[in-house]
Every structure is written in structure tokens, then in C-alpha cells.
Amino acid sequence: MSYLLGKERKLIIFSLIVISLYLSPYFILGDDAHIRVHDNLDSNLAWYKVLAESGQLTGSLDSRIPQIINGLPRNALGTELSLIVWLYVLFPTMGAYGVSQGITRFIAFLGMYLVLKDHFIKAEEKSIIRVGTALAFSLTPFWPSGMLSTLGMPLALWAFLHIRKGRVSWPYFLTLTLLPFYSSIVLGFFFFLSAMGIIWLYDLIRRKGWNWRFFLAIAYMTAMYLVTDYRLVYSFLFDGEPNSRDEYFHARLSFWHSVRLTFKNFFLGHTHVMTVHTLVILPVIVAAMLLIWKHKKWKKERIFVVFFVLNFVLSAWYAFWFYKGWLPLTEKFHFLDTFNFARFHFLRPLLLYILFAIGLKILWNEIKLQKIVPWLIAAQIIILLFSNEEIIHRKKPSVREFYAVEQFEAIKNHIGKPQHHYRVASIGLHPAIAQYNGFYTLDTYNNFYPLSYKEQFRKVIENELKKNKKIRIYFDEWGGRCYLFTDELGKHYMFKKTSKRRIENIDVNIKQFKELGGEFIFSSIPIDNASENDLKLDKVFDSKESAWKIYLYEAL
To answer: What sign has the CA pseudo-torsion 419, 424, 425, 428?
Structure first.
């Protein structure tokens, strides 16, 4: 027994070292690190910086941030009770990013290890399964600004399952208290708490009794989220100003398209909750299911079977949420469009890695297969190590190249006016870059903003939208990216200095642009008919530390 405990302790220490090495590029490379651009560099990291420097970090519910779209509602940038915001107040961008990654991954490891050890893989001799699965789970390429919204679920499940069994101890309630400060209810825990509510209801119906401790624990954590996400609650329930999400429309896919998306999600996962499960985990759980069928162990492995079915159901739910058959309901109940219920599939990382652990246990119990279990764990960990951001995004601009601080400082100095005295917009690059460098932008990428502004900005790009159905639908029926879209560039926003692209025939309403306060356009590619649009090329800016060549156009 002591030997087994010693072995498990060594495995845990080894895992913590691996996680530390995995995190090391953020701290060693700093701004020269390569990290995710989509929903990260192009948005959240710039938002944190703008918010930290806005003076509105703890602003009132009706306060505005003038740097974005002439007054973005403060509530659009999230709650100050989220600890990730304070990391970006206290540390430089990559320092905050690295610390956030560390917090998330170490807690993900702890949570998955505890929930497996206490509830699913209890046998001492199977320590390699629970530790190895926990390590693999902690290395998944989660969406960074989601924090513990998905990777914190195992720790929450560990606490809830203990409370469900009638065990009351301070670590469980401390878990339920602290997790809301480093996660989001809409990015994961609404769906997790809904699942806990279903389990409570199942217990009530099946056992014909009330489990008040379990019920109150669910209610308590829900209340904590309502407090920490109070800005979201206010915006959703009490803010009467129409916003861009009021025009969001999701029910568009055909039946067969939804079927294809079901299997795509089931086999490959989703960008915001990447599980990297296709090559190792999926074969393991399918093999385990075949062994259950062969030995008729349906009752003994009931949890595995339920989780296996639920895993597929969640993929189908995600895909069919976009099925056009929802249209009659979305027309009647508008909140079905404004709230993304498809995110129930955010439960899949939790399910898949618990399935992986139980599947390995089932293989372990087959004497002939026991020796391959460590190799399967090692294979999954190796795949995840090669999914490190520094490897996956190595061909994208580094953080330094993306935000191009030196280059945009030169642009600011050339313009020579206080940045709050004029407004800019970007073509061929994300407006987050200008925002990060202190410029006041008319364009933005935000989850919701005033619908009245969307309508005003649309007039600037109206003629370009008429040319291109794809970007017209993208803007009109979502509009989260309030960009200077052009027919020729479509939905492409990153043209590096090596690009040979040019805009030959743009048609934008510069009069409307100027009425919104616009004076300059930052374009990453030359505009051939600039003069026809009352635009004058002022100067071209380049820098060794930048991924872009910026053509500065002035509105005449």
C-alpha cells in the first residue's frame, strides 16, 4: 500500500513538472510567444487592457468606455469581480496571460484528479489512470478567456458529488464559493449547474425524497454567479436599450447540414472547448463500449454507458441548435436567439476525459490489455504537448508582431493629436490592434453593443454589404464584428506585410464615417481607388517588430 501511495505521489510530482514546462514559453518568450489569435489576441486581451486603462474598471452600470465606438457600455467588457481582469491590471499582457494559464491548468489537474480518485477510479493500483488522465485534461487547448468555465467543472463535480452523498466539509463549499470568481456562468457553468439540477431532480423522482444539502449547494453556487456576473444579469434582465444581439439569428442550417455538424463535433470537437480526443480517447471509449457489450456489463458500467450516450447527445444538441426548424420558436421566444443554448456541449470536455479514465479502467481489467494502458495515456499526453500554443500558432504573428506597439506609436506621433480627439477604423487587420495601442476606434469586436450604433456604422459599409451576401448576412444577423467589411476581402482580417493583395474597388460612405468622428483609416493593404472614396494616403508605416505594413489614409 505504501509503495502504491509513493508511486502515486511521484506521478503527481511528475505531472506538475510537465504542466510547468508546458507553461514555460509564456514566461521565457514573453511578447515573442505565439498564442491564439481568434477570440484572444483579436479581442479579449485588448479588452482587458482598454478596461484597465479606461478608469471605468469599477464604473457604474450605465457608464461608457469612450475609446470604443464612441461609448461602449461598460457592461460589455464583463465584471470586475472576475479575477482575470485584475491580472491584466497588475501585470503586463503576457505576464497576466501566463499566470492565468497556470491557474487554470493546475486547478484543472487538481479537479480531475480528485473527482476520479474519490468517485470514479478509486482503486489504489490504478493511480496511473487517474493521474495520467488528470494531466492530459490539464493540457487541453482550452479557450484562454474562458478561464475555469470548462476546466473547473471536474473540481465542481467533485464537490457536488460529495455533497450529494451527504458529506459536508469546508473544502466543498470553498470550491463552490471561489470558482465563480475565475469562471463564467454563460461560458460553462450555466450548463453545468443545469446538469446538477437534472441530477437532483432525477434523485427526487427515483428515490422519492428531497436532498436539501445538494439542492442548496446548487442554489448557492448559482447565487454566487449571479453576484459575480451582476453586470451580465443587469444587461440581460433590466437594460432596456436594444443591443446588437437583438438581431442575432442562429436557426439557419438544413437537417442534413445539422447531421453532418453533429458528427463533426462528435469526432473533432469545437474551437472553444478543444479536447483533442479523436486519435486516442475516442478509440479507447469505443473499445471499452465493445468490451461492455461483449461481457454484458451494462449494469456494472452504467455510468460509462450513460456518459457515452450523453456525449453524442450533446454533439447533436449543439448541431441541431442551428437547425432552421427552431425558427417558429425563436420568433415567439426571442431569448432563444439572444442566449446561446448550444453551449450545453461545453460539458463534453468533462465527459470525454471521465470516459477516457473509465475506459482505461475497463481495458485495465482485461489482463491481456493491461500493459497498453500506460502507453495510451502517454500517447494522449504527447499529442496534447504538441498542441501547445507555441507549436500550433508558430506561423501566426507573435504577440509583439501582432500588437506592433512600436509601429503604432510612430503612427500616433505622426498624427500628432491627442488620441481622444479623433477616431479611426481598420481594414485588413483587427481593430483590437488599434485599441490595444490607445486609439479610439469606430470599429470593434464585442459580444453586444448598442443596436443604434450598429445601424449607424452599417451606413458606412452599406454599399460593400450589397456586393457580398456572405458578409451582409454575417454583419446583419450577428454583427459581433463591427468591422469595415469589403467585398474583395470578405471575412479575412489579417493581411501581413508579405501579402500582395490590394483593394481595387472599395465603396464606403466616408461622409457617414466622418459624421461618426472618423478621420483616419489604418489599412494593411493598399487601396487603389482611395481618392474616389475621399481618402488620401498620408504615409506608409513599417517596422521590423510588426507583422503589418500600415497604410494610413486620411478622410477628406
So the answer is: negative
d(CA 255, CA 371): 44
Each residue's pLDDT tens digit, 486-510: 999 999 999 999 999 999 999 999 9
Question: Which residues have C-beta within 8 Å of that of residue 93, sequence separation ≥ 6?
Answer: 31, 45, 48, 49, 399, 403
- Alpha carbon distance 79, 61 (integer Å): 10
Give the model's pLDDT for residue 235: 85
Whether 329 contacts 363, CB under 8 Å: no
CA distance 464 to 490: 10
Distance of CA 484 to the CA centre of its chain: 24
Strand partners, 540: 551
Cell of 40: 484572444
The span from the CA of 315 to the CA of 267, in Å, is: 9
- Torsion angle in degrees (nearest 10) through CA of 74, 77, 83, 85: -90
Euclidean distance between CA atoms 10 and 8, whole angstroms: 5
The C-alpha atoms of residue 502 and residue 133 are separated, in whole angstroms, by 49
Nearest to 342 by CA among 268, 244, 225, 258: 258
C-alpha dihedral, 39 to 41 to 43 to 48, nearest 10°:
120
Residues 6+ apart with CB under 8 A from 489: 427, 428, 495, 501, 503, 525
Q: Write down the pTM of the prediction.
A: 0.94
